Request: fold
Amino acid sequence: MSRLSLVVSLRMTMRDWRAGELRFLLVALMIAVASLSSVGFFVDRMRTGLNRDAHQLLGADLVVSADQPVNPAWRSEAEKRGLSLAETVVFPSMAIAGEGADSATRLVSIKAVSAGYPLRGNLKLEKGDAEAVTRETPAAGTVWVDPAMLPGLNLKIGAQLKLGDKLFNVAQVIANEPDRGASFMNFMPRVMISKQDLAATNLIQNGSRVTYRLLVAGSAKAAQDFQKWLQDTIERDDVKGVRLESLETGRPEMRATLDRAEQFLSLVSLLSAMLAAVAVAMAARRFMLRHLDACAMLRCLGMTQNQVTLMYLAEFLLIGMAGSVAGVILGFAGHYVLLEWLGKLVSNDLPGASWLPVWQGIATGLLLLVGFALPPILQLRNVPHNRVIRREQDAPKPLTLAGYGLGLAMFIGLLLWQAGDIKLGLLTAAGFLLGLLGFAMISWGAVASLKRLRGLINHASWRFAVTALQRRPGASVIQVVSLALGLMALLLLTVVRSDLTAAWKQATPADAPNQFVINIQPDQKEEIAARLAPLAKPVLYPMIRGRLVQVNDKAITGETYQEDRAKRLVDREFNLSTMAELPAMNKLTEGQWYNDSTSRQPEASVEEGIAKTLNLKLGDKLGFDVAGQSVSATITSLRKLDWGSMRVNFFVIINPKAMRDMPQTWITAFRLPDGQVNFVNQLTRDFPNLTVVDVGAVIRQLQSVMDQVTTAVEFLFLFTLASGVLVLYAALAGSQDIRMKEAALLRALGATRKQLSQAQWIEFLLVGGLAGILAAAGSSATGWALARFVFNFEWTFSPLVWVAGLAVGAACALIGGWVGLRNVLNQPPLLSLRES
Reply:
């Protein structure tokens, strides 16, 4: 680009800025970039925080978990590499408090820890109403217990607790363990002892279910090298029952909720950016139309096509860079609002953001502007010299139309990259594109059909309105489509958003069971059901422990599968069940539920997720070992479970005929109202063999996440609302110049100001009503697709969406028309005709 062209470009930029031509473009860019950047900065810091703090969820950088004591050679190798080590041993056992008739027992999770535990993160103890971080571990002869242990066994600090053959003094109350995780064993009350006291309890015997963990910590490179050495050693020596734990197994109860939270935030930012893209495209088109004469004049003064292209391209790049940088700054400030509401989901001390969201924001703004402004620039380069004399405009050339397609493809690709969720990005982009094409076709057909309706009402204003829509069908279609797209996004994030968040909350409802009771013996079933009846209608399910040993008469082991989860499933026992009716919150996806009264062979219903993991399908024959007895059943149905409901669920259910003689216990779940802790204490005292698991804290945490995310979506909705207003303004402002000329001509021919004003209102109502109906259809279809394929919610049709679409569409068109075109009839006709 020559120096002369650069100087001319800078002068043109300043002139257009003073004239207000570029301010709309700048605002649209800032909103698009700020919307994406605010989410981008937050997600970047959240991910960085997770990576930084992942070891705190494990208590180490690497955890070796085994069902046998860890090989001493592995410890020696880790010490040679300069790594710090600690050990834990976790197993269930009975704890006894008191003596004689006053004694009470409870099933607990014992955790024996070595000195130095935890290597990462902090162990916290209760100190009155506060929590205190400690680097100590229980002293010999003492135990630290969960708060639930104190009322459950009538304990207090200094009391004695018997574990196996040894008496301990209760010394501290545990407030938080960084590596506790969410396994079912860890839902039991914790009792922590020193590893030195473990042997004296004589609790670990042959057949005991014990988990041994070796905790390893050190520099990142040393830990990674040791992990690779350990993986190679395990594979070479074919070691069984050992796995290496990572973040993926650290907090599984929160993973799905946090994933959905990020999807909600990404959805809002995607829609805001797409709406802003429409506004930018329309503003760039208006810019092109208002510069046709200036471009023709420059061509008459000797400028070549390439010089014209470079001049306007440089002008747009300057605005693009300024808008992108300003949008990134605004997004950076906005993400602190998200941190205020959502930062506690990960850490109270998130690390600083990286430069990635900055580059993503700038790239978004530049691609958005260049992608949607380049086609009008290409059209400007083709303006003929005789445009100065002849007021004609050529149709867009194929290269111009191809530029729109290229810009749209690049912009969608950038959104997919930033969203980080291919399915969400593709569904949102597909809904946007299908809406664009579908709305355009329907709008064109509707405008064409108005010709027959012109004489429907014998009123001058009606005829003026219909004629105006037909006189410029392209502009009318653009107005309907742009308003429909804006309303579709707004409806999706208002009415439909409410349905999505409601469905999300229903997945883990506030009245979900918060207590699980397991190990109910057959002779206790009726009495426990009677005890629970005043609180809820208890449903007790049989639970049968069985190990999967055969599939289609072929013996299987953990080595049969490659995936780690499949190996773990086969290596441990399944919780099987048997019942005649399909349980609540279960939905059949394939096959048919068995009829136990007519079933001639054992039949099994399998959860679809585990079926996929183990490569199972309808017709496969499963063989289980249940306490030494063999059971075989054919898969006749697959089920989809709602794990977030916190209700009792089973991977495999077999018809009652096949399980009649199998040893079984019972399990149930119920909701315990606040303030009735004594009910559980009395239940465990009367039935010491029971294990009552309190999952209320998990439910409260999930509900808190959903409430905070909903609040954050409300904040991001402001960006979408601003984008929708820009689209509406751009749609109406694009036709402002030609409307002034038409109004001046009609007034010169005898039309009154009142007639033209009424015609505008009728035109706005027609455009807004059609756009509202189209928006309702588009938002309903997009909401259904998102609920089904992304968020995994049940979708229900809401007529409110259609009523709101029609009403809001008409209202937006009327308000926007008055704001954007109130000056059309205020300009004297003679002045408008002279300017023509």
Notes: The longest helix spans residues 252-290. The first strand starts at residue 62 and ends at 66.
